[in-house]
## 1
Amino acid sequence: MENKSKTKEALEWIYCIIIAVVIVLLIKSFIGVPTVVKQTSMFPTLQQNERLWLNRWGATFDKMPNRGDIITFEAPSVIMVDENHANYENPVAEYNYEPNNIFSRFIYYTLEIGKTSYIKRVIGLPGEHVEIKDGNVYINGDLLQEDYLQDYVVTEALGGCYIDIVVPENTVYALGDNRGESTDSRRFGCIPVNKIESKAVFRFWPLNKFGGIYKKVR
């Protein structure tokens, strides 16, 4: 009887652990998750080692983000498209890898092992003409007022091909705030909405910067 009791207790613990892991994974995949800033492409808006809360609810339903939102998305397979391979009729980032079974999908998309993500700001929305010239961004011919940028920041092509395009349906055009050091839609094209993982909603570390992330655009 004692052995049966111990076995039952052990099984109950195992069940509890499994349920807890499933709940954590569901929250991580569909609701939200904390993250640490590792890249410099959003400097100084976001700085290395800052802690953010990422909202994944919109991405769960492939909801179109708003201009100015800071999003994370799966890094494209090709991060630098040259003129010989640029597709100006359909300037969408290229994704070549797709897990071929349930287990590999779980590892890649849920546990995010072997997966690289970028964090950038949404600039252009579907159907909009995005043009980069004279160190600025123009949307449908109008200068985009980017109050979140430092005064010294200029937006240049940086060798990218996609600097005068119309954003395709179900995609967004995204740039880093650190325009001189960012690999973004200028180089690899627009991001499909189904590749967007989350939206950065607030910063919880350091404490002196605790709060929502500024995104004013006009």
## 2
Amino acid sequence: MSLKENVDYIKNEIDTEEKFLEGFVKLERVFKKYKFLLISTVAVVLIAFIGNSVKNYLDNETKLKANAAYNTLQTNPNDTVALAILKDTNENLYNIVLFLNSKKETTNIDSLFLKELSEYAVAIEKSDMSKLNSLTMNQDFILKEYVIFNKALLETKNNEFEKAKKTLEAIGEDSTISKIVNSLRHYLITK
């Protein structure tokens, strides 16, 4: 290599180092200018990640406690400690256990659907038409058509055939229980 090539090579290396130092100085200026913002952002992301991990862990532990309490109640329905744990950890599962353990009582059940289901069972057992009427007025009740059908059955049993026919008109042809409704309608044709 000639002396000129060596000088050019050294010059090129110095320019590269100079550009590197210049970039580093620019980065340092940006860091100093936005230091608080960058550190805050990293801290928030880190805290959010840790918080989410802790929340997931606690939720999982709560589910495990609730499942253990539910399994205990499956074998021993009178275990008050397991019932208290279940009430604290999973309110919906607690309501289901209450419903299954005391089908006749509707006052202790907080879940709206289970309470209505329990009221329906009691109304059918007692042939309480006014309670069945109030249940059919609830548009959100999942068994509404079935309640209407049972109301028509009770009216048929009481020899109120015209009322039963009118009651069955509330159930559409596209209903999931249309086959049994049609059977009752055919029976009512002769009455």
